[in-house]
Structure formats: structure tokens, C-alpha cells
Design brief:
heterodimer, A: 512 residues, mainly alpha, 19 helices, 2% strand, B: 107 residues, 4% strand
Chain lengths: 512, 107
């Protein structure tokens, strides 16, 4: 078997089957389960890396299920009716983010989760969520995008409500589940409309067929409504602080990555599927919701006294930065592409930076909760005396999230500030104001939780949890010191795939 | 290491050099301080009349004026975060209506 050709489907199938087999291994023994998870994680990471290397070196990777040769995308009738995976630079970039976050999350979970609290279930849901994210990133088919959207929704809700012995976790999971379901139904209705009109589900094929009719526009509105909810844009963000605040820490980092993969789906639909019908009005909608999200979430973070919810609002605010960057790109795609591309690159770069910085913060909060037995800022204090590494990691993550140089958040925010300034200085001013608010919020949280005299004796943080946080911290420093390296080799090809790569994508799938 | 944005540049190396210079300057000033200083003398901070040694300024008190200044705005936003699922879904419907308006009428 030529592994290279089959790598895209194997990258989805291995974690998917691995997740369902995990509870069986768990029945046989904990060490066997952990060994299985290690094998599945290593194999999936290697496959995703292989796909990414192929994409970045040779171009878009296409895989057709059920065809005599995986690269044969067209059925004998001359159009794509089979399930097709199409991985371009942006899809590979999202796959890498999901994989990085999943690996760190599982390393952290090794000691964070207690066996008697259903560790096997949490690991299974995490692996399933990872598989769903890879499916969303790699699929070239609108219906399978919906299927993987649902896979991630189910796994994410399971993780949010994982702590069934508390009341808040299941309540947050129920709210999230209802909203995900309503959003998913919008998505499904849009697919039904497009299928009814064109008889096609393949993204590239549909992109060629779309004419901009009323039905096309209704479908676009439904897709936008469902996806804006799933990414947590204000004012349909309200499930996000509940979910992020209640899920176990290793699960929250996966939820953040899931939000970003949903953003990817939004971008794919706006640029690749509807790219030929670019409408500045939709761009302004994304810009407006981005600006609203970053400002409202930062303001809401100011008054939070629960460290988990505080970081959760910080996470929602970062979605605003990404929406702003990509929205500016969408608004100016036709008229002023120069700074639109800059903002688009900034928005995509910020996805990676946010995954590292906010992931680090959530893991640090999990360590604090475990060590001190709570997250209420009113009762925490002086943890820095005993939890030196955790304090350092939290501080580093907070500075990166607030966009303080030379950490990674600064470089991507600078690109977003510049790109949005050229569209409207007010947008840049709002974005900078949100960053200042976040800095104040996190300085306050750091002082409250980690500085001051000892108020108690927290339990030590296990080494695997520190290693997981350390890996993210190294990423924050590396991306901060070498932003050009990442922008040149990973971000620019990903942005170009959206911007100028639409035709290349369509040709790779349709051959014409 | 320099990131060229097309409308400017960002060089972490230059920033680090500046930070090293500032640190050197701070150390220089510090070295000019009193040599007869003994650690532990006169270090007790004045915390709004709090006389107990080792009092902790909790997060609820830090930036008090800043938080109170923003509170009127935040409270209005907080009123939207009711925690009721029906309200969450209602907002989703409102956003969908807005999106429809922009996509159908705007387009």
C-alpha cells in the first residue's frame, strides 16, 4: 500500500477507529489503554505531518473514496459524486493546529484526569473530537463537512458535560448541545437547498455551479448563521464561556481548536464556495461581528472572579481578532487586495498563536484548580510561592494573549491592526482597546492568584502537566521570536489558498 | 527574524536589544543605590490602612477604580448573559435575521 497516497483518509480513520477501540482496551487494562492511545496519537500525528509536507511541497492533495485510483475524482459521468477529501495549505494548517493541541491535551490529561472520574471516557471523547476536526479540515465535500461538524459537536458536548457529578458541567453541555443542534440544522437545511438546486454536494463542483440566485443566498445565510454560532461570535457566543468554564482543562484546549476549525469552515465557505460571488456586505458583517466580539468579550472578562470564566471570555475575544482579520480580507478582496491579504494573513496566523496562548492559560487554570482546590479569585492568592512553573506559564500566556512583544500574539495582532487600520482606523482602535483591557484583566488575575503572601499549601502540579504547559510555552516563545519563519512557510501559503488559490483548488478537484 | 508586513516591519531582535539596554540601565541605577540597605527594613507596604503584615491584595480589590469605571457598561452587557437557554436561542434567531437581511437585501 502506498501510504503517501492514502495519508489523508488514514489521518481521519486512525483516530476515529482508535477512539472507538479505546474503551475496549480500557476494559483490558489501563496500561494497555494508554499504550493504545499513544500509538493512535503517534500514528495520527505522523499522518497529518505527512499530509502537510505533501501539501506544502507538491500542492493540493486530493483523495477519492471508492475510486479505482484515489486521485480519480470524477465519476464516469464526468462529475464528482464520490466522497472526496481535498487538502490545501489552509486545510493542512488547521490539521497541524488540531494535532498540536490534541497531543498537548493528551499529555496533560495523563495525570490531570483521575481514573475513578471516567478517564477512559474523556480520552475517548478527546480522540473523537480530534478525528472530527481533521475531517472538517480535510473534507472537500459539503455534506461530510456537516457530518464532521456533528461529530465534533457530539464529542465537544460530551467533554463539556464530562463532570457529571457537578451540576454546572451537564447544564453547560445541555446549552451547548441545543445551540450546536440548532446551528447544525441551519447547516443541513442549507445543504438541502443547494443539493435541491444543483444536485451536487462537492465543494469545488458547487463552487463552479453557484450563480448567486436567491436560493444560493438563503443557503449562504443559513451556513453563516450556523457557523457564526459555532465559532462563538458575539452575540451568539453565550454558550462558549459556559462550555469553556466547565469542561476539564485538557478538553477546553480541544474545544478552542474545534472553534478554530469551525472558523476554517466559515472561511472555506466564504472564500472557496462563494468566492466567485464576493459581496462586501458579507465582509462587513464579519468585520462588525469580529469587532463586537473582541470588545464585548474583553469587557465581560473585566468583572469575572472565576479564573476559568475569565480566561474563557479572553478566548472568545480572540475569536473577534480572527474574524476581524479575515473579515477585512473579505471586504477588500476585490477593491484593495494589498491590505486585505495582510489582514487575512494576520487572522490566520492568530489562529495558531491563539491555540498556543489560550491553550497555555486554560492548562494553567486546570493546574491551579487541581492544586488549590478552586478557581475563585477572591479566595486564591500567593500560589506563585509553591507553583513557580505554573505561575510562569500563566504569566507568559497572559502576556502573549494581550499581544505584548516579543511574544507570539503581538506579531499576528500587528498584522490585524495594520490591515484593519487601512480599512478604518476605528477598527484598529477598538482592537487595541480590547488588547489593553485584556492586559489589565490578566495582570489583575495574575496578581490575585499567584502573587502576595501564601494563603495555603497547594498540592504540587504533576510533571506531565508541566511538560504539556512547557511545550505550549516554548511554542509561544518560538513563534514570538521567529514570526517571519512561520508566516513565510505556513501562514502565507494558507492565506494564498483562500485568496488566490480558489481556482487552483477547483482545478485540483475537477481537473478543469 | 524580521517580519515584513508590507506596511511596516516587526523585528523581535531589535526589541530584545532595546529590552537588554533598558535592563542594563535599570541595573546601573540600582547599583547606584544605598549600600547600607538591609533587606526586611521598611518593606511593609501601606495598604489602605491595613496594618496586618502579609495582607493579600485580592483580585477583587486590584484595579478597583478601573473596574468600577467600566462597571456601568459591563452591567448592561451582563444583562444579556442571562444564562437562560431560551435567550441564547433567541439571539441566534436575531443574528440569523440580521444575516438574512445583509445577504438578501445587501446582495
Amino acid at each position: 500500500m502506498n501510504l503517501t497516497v492514502h495519508a489523508p483518509i488514514l489521518a481521519i480513520a486512525v483516530p476515529l477507529l482508535g477512539a472507538f477501540a479505546l474503551p475496549l482496551w480500557g476494559k483490558l487494562g489501563r496500561s494497555l489503554r494508554d499504550l493504545w492511545l499513544l500509538l493512535v496519537a503517534a500514528a495520527t500525528a505522523a499522518l497529518v505531518a505527512l499530509v502537510a509536507v505533501q501539501v506544502y511541497t507538491t500542492g493540493i492533495q486530493v483523495y477519492t473514496l471508492g475510486a479505482a485510483w484515489p486521485r480519480d475524482t470524477l465519476a464516469p459521468g464526468g462529475f464528482p459524486i464520490r466522497i472526496i477529501l481535498a487538502v490545501d495549505a489552509l486545510g493542512a494548517f488547521m490539521g497541524l493546529i488540531a494535532t498540536l493541541v490534541a497531543l498537548v491535551g493528551f499529555a496533560y490529561a495523563a495525570r490531570y484526569l483521575a481514573e475513578e472520574e471516567g478517564k477512559t471516557l474523556a480520552l475517548t471523547l478527546g480522540t473523537l473530537l480530534w478525528a472530527g476536526m481533521l475531517g472538517m479540515a480535510f473534507t472537500g465535500d459539503l455534506f461530510n463537512l456537516f457530518v464532521f461538524f456533528e461529530v465534533t459537536s457530539i464529542a465537544a458536548c460530551g467533554l463539556v458535560g464530562y463532570r457529571t457529578w457537578t451540576s454546572r458541567g451537564p447544564e453547560a453541555a445541555f446549552k451547548t448541545m441545543v445551540l450546536y443542534t440548532v446551528g447544525g440544522l441551519f447547516f443541513l437545511l442549507a445543504i438541502a437547498l443547494l443539493y435541491g438546486e444543483y444536485g451536487a454536494l462537492n465543494l469545488a463542483h458547487l463552487a463552479r455551479l453557484l450563480r448567486g440566485s436567491t436560493v444560493d443566498r438563503v443557503a449562504l445565510a443559513l451556513l453563516l448563521g450556523g457557523l457564526l454560532m459555532k465559532v462563538g461570535a458575539v452575540p451568539v457566543h453565550m454558550w462558549a464561556p459556559d462550555a469553556y468554564g466547565e469542561a476539564p482543562a485538557h478538553g477546553v484546549v480541544l474545544l478552542v481548536a474545534n472553534t478554530q476549525v469551525s472558523l476554517y469552515a466559515l472561511f472555506r465557505i466564504l472564500f472557496t464556495l462563494y468566492g466567485g460571488l464576493s459581496d462586501p456586505g458579507v465582509g462587513w458583517l464579519v468585520v462588525g461581528m469580529g469587532a463586537l466580539t473582541l470588545l464585548v468579550a474583553s469587557l465581560m472578562a473585566v468583572v469575572q472572579m472565576d479564573l476559568g470564566r475569565l480566561v474563557a471570555f479572553g478566548a472568545v475575544s480572540q475569536i473577534g481578532f480572527m474574524l476581524l482579520g479575515v473579515g477585512v480580507g473579505l471586504t477588500t478582496v476585490a477593491s484593495r487586495p494589498g491590505y486585505g491579504l495582510l489582514a487575512l494573513r494576520g487572522g490566520i496566523f492568530h489562529m495558531l498563536n491563539d491555540a498556543l496562548a489560550i491553550g497555555l492559560l486554560f492548562l494553567a487554570v486546570g493546574a491551579v484548580e487541581r492544586a488549590a482546590g478552586g478557581r475563585n479569585l477572591g479566595s486564591l492568592g500567593g500560589l506563585g510561592h509553591n507553583l513557580k512553573w505554573t505561575s510562569g506559564f500563566f504569566f507568559l500566556g497572559a502576556l502573549a494573549l494581550a499581544g505584548i512583544p516579543p511574544l507570539n500574539g503581538f506579531a499576528s495582532k500587528l498584522m490585524i491592526y495594520q490591515g484593519s487600520f487601512l480599512l478604518s482606523p476605528i477598527l484598529s482602535a477598538l482592537a487595541i482597546l480590547a488588547s489593553i483591557l485584556l492586559l489589565a484583566v490578566f495582570v489583575r488575575a495574575f496578581q490575585g492568584a499567584f502573587l502576595g503572601p501564601r494563603l495555603g499549601k497547594p498540592d504540587p502540579v504533576p510533571v506531565p502537566m508541566l511538560i504539556a504547559m512547557g511545550a505550549l510555552a516554548l511554542g509561544v516563545l518560538f513563534l514570538g521570536l521567529f514570526p517571519d519563519l512561520v508566516v513565510r512557510h505556513l501562514v502565507t501559503p494558507a492565506a494564498d489558498a483562500l485568496w488566490t488559490g480558489r481556482e487552483v483548488y477547483l482545478q485540483a478537484v475537477l481537473g478543469r | 527574524m524580521t517580519l515584513l508586513t508590507g506596511y511596516g516591519f516587526w523585528s523581535p531582535l531589535v526589541w530584545l536589544a532595546g529590552a537588554a539596554g533598558a535592563t542594563f540601565l535599570a541595573l546601573l541605577l540600582w547599583s547606584r543605590g544605598r549600600r547600607d540597605y538591609r533587606r526586611g527594613e521598611g518593606e511593609l507596604p501601606f495598604l489602605s490602612g491595613e496594618k496586618a503584615e502579609g495582607a493579600h491584595v485580592g483580585a477583587g480589590h486590584l484595579y478597583w477604580g478601573f473596574v468600577e469605571g467600566l462597571r456601568p457598561y459591563v452591567e448592561r452587557l451582563r444583562a444579556f448573559h442571562t444564562g437562560f437557554l431560551g435567550d441564547y436561542v433567541a439571539w441566534l434567531v436575531v443574528v440569523l435575521a440580521l444575516v438574512f437581511l445583509i445577504v438578501l437585501v445587501g446582495g
